[in-house]
Amino acid sequence: MEFEQIVMQIIASSGEARSLCLKAVRIAREGRLEEAGELLKQAKEQLGKAHKVQTGLIQAEGRGEKTEVTILMIHAQDHLMNALTVRELIVELIEEIRQRQALEQKLKGLVD
Predict the structure, then answer these.
(1) How do residues 29-42 score in pLDDT, each as one tens digit?
(2) What residues does Mg(2+) bind to (predicted)?
(3) Which member of 23, 29, 75, 98 is catalytic?
(4) Which of 23, 59, 97, 112 is the 20 to 30 Å CA partner of 73?
């Protein structure tokens, strides 16, 4: 596979993961926490794919195969790191949403 195609795999998988995470937090706000959790699982799988490609490039370089550092490669790494960070933050946000919703249910039970 050509270098550009390999790098594009990182970009595509990372972008998909980021989109899934953002969708997950929107759905969590609607109270659909189980569905949000499934989206986060899918995002993790996409990040795994991107990481696997990245690891392959790192291993190739470790074997002495030179990897060309291009703007496209830098862009791909940026996408991957951004998606990883977004997922970590979204996981925390969804936990906050989960706790808030549980508290609201408790309070509602006290008022009713």
Answers:
(1) 999 999 999 999 99
(2) 78
(3) 75
(4) 23
Query: Of 24, 28, 18, nearest to 39 (Cα)?
Result: 24
**54 is written with which tokens?**
């990245």
Burial class (CB in 10 A: 0-12, 13-18, 19+), 14: buried
Q: Quick one: average pLDDT of 87-101?
A: 97
Give the global pTM: 0.89
First to last CA, the chain: 63
Per the listing, tokens 């009713």 go with 112
The answer to the question of whether 78 is labelled as a binding residue is yes
Distances (CA, A) of 70 to 7, 24, 55: 10, 32, 17
**Residues 39-69: tens digit of each pLDDT:** 999 999 999 999 999 999 999 999 999 888 8
Known catalytic residue at 79: no
